[in-house]
Amino acid sequence: xxxxxxxxxxxxxxxxxxxxxxxxxxxxxxxxxxxxxxxxxxxxxxxxxxxxxxxxxxxxxxxxxxxxxxxxxxxxxxxxxxxxxxxxxxxxxxxxxxxxxxxxxxxxxxxxxxxxxxxxxxxxxxxxxxxxxxxxxxxxxxxxxxxxxxxxxxxxxxxxxxxxxxxxxxxxxxxxxxxxxxxxxxxxxxxxxxxxxxxxxxxxxxxxxxxxxxxxxxxxxxxxxxxxxxxxxxxxxxxxxxxxxxxxxxxxxxxxxxxxxxxxxxxxxxxxxxxxxxxxxx
Length: 282
What we know:
The chain is of the alpha+beta class. The chain is built from seven helices and eleven strands. A nine-stranded antiparallel β-sheet has the order 1-2-5-8-9-10-11-6-7, with no helix packed on it. The chain has a two-stranded parallel ribbon with strand order 3-4. Helix 3 (about 200-210) runs antiparallel to helix 4 (about 215-225), helix 5 runs antiparallel to helix 6 and helix 5 packs parallel to helix 7 (about 270-280). About 25% of the residues are buried.
């Protein structure tokens, strides 16, 4: 009897492992990127149009205008922020959120929902769980997008914002996420310059580029030059700081020294950068 039971259990185990695998109609996907110092990630399931009309007012559309949509398939779409952010100007704490939307002909309402356990159950939507609710314009695409696609792009030159884009069929919707990394950088500067003097260079350049205390930047860049007196890239930044402080003569002398060291290193880029800086000092 024991042998029969053992054989039966073995057969069940083998059968469980031998399940047929087939492609999912709405496969799982994720997209992530770093904006400033903030990680942004989107997890979603990707339905395909398969010849259907997706958005509109017709009776047979997949997502009728004005009705709540989980903005994806299966358990809906989740977005995660590693730091506090702003979404379309609304402050949103770091964490995980569901993306719900109400499509329209030219404008969509979008919300970030705090209770991720709700999943794709739009019938249980509770406005008190909204972290943000905002309206954005929709755009018509010239090329059809067969499968729902999310992207994180249009990262600003200063890395302080990016656009979240949803595209499906002939419709695109974007919303802006803003990040603030200054507090993190300032804390890092305070900690790292105490440990490693070479970090004075990065701290000084950050102060220069972000309009902070130039006298403090000058102190740091001088320490960086002292630690590495032949570093033409450090001298170049020192010249820029001197110029910002109004010391054109000092900036010119430092820039010329940087040019000479760059020439020795056969670095034409820094020679040209110094030449351009010197033109502005005359």
